[in-house]
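queue> holo job accepted (cytidine-5'-monophosphate)
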Amino acid sequence: MKKTKKFLKIAIDSPAAAGAGTLAKSISKHYNLYYLDTGKIYRMIAYLKIKFPKKFNQNFLKKKISLIKVKNLSNKNLLSDEVGTEASIISKNKNIRKLVHSFQVNCAYNPPKNFNGSCLDGRDITYKIVPDADFKFFITANLKTRAHRRYKELKKINKKILYKNVLKSIKKRDKSDFNRKISPLKKTKDSVLLNTTKLNKRACFLKIKKIIDRKLKT
Ligand code: C5P
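queue> job finished
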């Protein structure tokens, strides 16, 4: 009898700049999974707030969110530190989280048919968006390493950026993401912890791949 392929769901949570996005992309490519960087949704909302402060209300957002396409989330304007900081502010809002919830759930559970499953990364993926994921990971790295990585990324789009400011904003974002009341960032008991401080991209990928392959074989 032909064995039906298992639909694979991978959920990843992590603090800012821990390497989760890069890792999630390579894992998604390897297993042909539909990838969604959920932080980009909050960044897009933050960008709209900065760009259209007067129009920014629930109805305006509802309309914009209904038009979200995953491909639009790769917009370069979403990468700045200013947008990241604003994203961590608007993401504390219960109504905003409600508005984007079904979009994320839909990407996780109903990805386009040509994919073998989905892989989402964010802050509340392992326990709120995909609580029954086949694999759950909590990716982290020490604060200075994360700040250095983000500084290098941001330097490409803004030559004037200072390391000390990037460090400050990552610290602030950590504080807010870990301590907020709604959907705080946390490592669930059933998530595998990966500290990427001393690992390069390839080593991270291989560690995660090993865990996935071991379980898939059984
Ligand atoms: O992942 P990224 O750094 O792009 O996320 C930007 C901000 O969006 C985070 O600092 C966090 O406050 C918020 N976020 C969230 N829940 C998610 C993903 C991101 O609250 N699932």
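queue> Strands lie at 8-13, 34-37, 117-122, 135-140, 192-195.
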